[in-house]
Amino acid sequence: LKFPSRMRGEFLSGKCTIYKLFGLCMVLVLISLLWLQLSCSGDMSSVTRQNQHDPQPPPPPCPTERQASAADDPSWGPHKLALVVPFRERFEELLVFVPFMHKFLNKKKIRHKILIINQVDHYRFNRASLINVGFKESGNDTDYLAMHDVDLLPLNEALDYGFPKEGPFHVASPELHPLYHYKTYVGGILLLTKRHYHMCNGMSNRFWGWGREDDEFYRRLRKAELQLFRPSGITTGYKTFLHIHDPAWRKRDQKRVAAQKQEQFKVDPDGGLTNLQYQVDSRQELTISGAPCTIINTKLECDQNQTPWCLLS
């Protein structure tokens, strides 16, 4: 079968037109895909450049970080206090003490860190040895310490917690302490420079159980020829401090065993920082109601030949 030449030309012309349209469509598809790829690459590089040159702002600091930056302000002065708290199993009082003291000292612009020296061994409580541990573990960033009971809170903002350059400063003086009023009392809250504490060789390690270690330390202050200072101009009397200890709930270990009755009134001429024996079991950084503190879990050691009363049995 033969077609006329005119019909064959029209058929070939239509066939070429279809191929042209198909080719044109393929070109358009390729151009679209290329444009899409270039657009995506451009967007990604733009995002990358934006992340590099304009990163997301960091989250706002927590309250404790803001407080720490405030404590680095030069107006707070160059000194830093190690607030040393001898401690064992009085967690209810600790939950009150740490945030209260952190707020109190911040308000007075006292740079500080709170060290809770927690006795975790099986011996009787030894407040003096724990304070010695606090002195040794306080670090080089502090230059004075407060020997501070966990159950005594200062209520009068006029009380001075500043650097005691001239000599030991007894914050909880007999005229102000709610319980103890004898003239040689130096317990409760006592501030000393580290140099002065070292001059006394710290506190005696012979006092296991409650009491008498402060009286022996008073004699050390006298021997080191350090003048003792106390607050003046405080008019709040025995209401200057809040004593939060509940004797019915937390009974003190006042037992005197073996030769302890006779030894408790003697001066310990050699003991102190030089014969302190202890191990740090662990350290824990803790925040209580926004107030930071360091818990130093401590195991004291006892030479039962020297102080057999470190155990009750």
TrEMBL record:
Subcellular location(s) per record: Golgi apparatus membrane
Which controlled-vocabulary keywords does the entry list? Glycoprotein, Glycosyltransferase, Golgi apparatus, Manganese, Membrane, Metal-binding, Signal-anchor, Transferase, Transmembrane, Transmembrane helix
Q: Pathway, according to UniProt? A: Protein modification; protein glycosylation
- The Galactosyltransferase N-terminal domain covers 78-161
- Molecular-function GO terms, alphabetical: metal ion binding; xylosylprotein 4-beta-galactosyltransferase activity
Per the record, the domain of life is: Eukaryota
Q: Which Pfam families match?
A: Glyco_transf_7C, Glyco_transf_7N
Identify the enzyme class. Answer: transferase
User: Per the UniProt record, which EC number(s) apply here?
Assistant: 2.4.1.-
Which cofactors does it use?
Answer: Mn(2+)
Q: Where is this region: Disordered?
A: 46-75
Main location group = Golgi
Which ranges does the record mark as transmembrane?
A: 21-38
Catalytic activity reported = 3-O-(beta-D-xylosyl)-L-seryl-[protein] + UDP-alpha-D-galactose = 3-O-(beta-D-galactosyl-(1->4)-beta-D-xylosyl)-L-seryl-[protein] + UDP + H(+)
State the membrane topology: Single-pass type II membrane protein
Give an example GO cellular component term for this record: Golgi cisterna membrane
Biological processes per GO annotation: carbohydrate metabolic process; glycosaminoglycan biosynthetic process; proteoglycan biosynthetic process
Where does the Galactosyltransferase C-terminal domain lie?
168-243
Protein's job = Responsible for the synthesis of complex-type N-linked oligosaccharides in many glycoproteins as well as the carbohydrate moieties of glycolipids.
* Family (UniProt): Belongs to the glycosyltransferase 7 family.
**Under what name is this protein listed?**
Beta-1,4-galactosyltransferase
Supply the source organism for this entry.
Poecilia latipinna
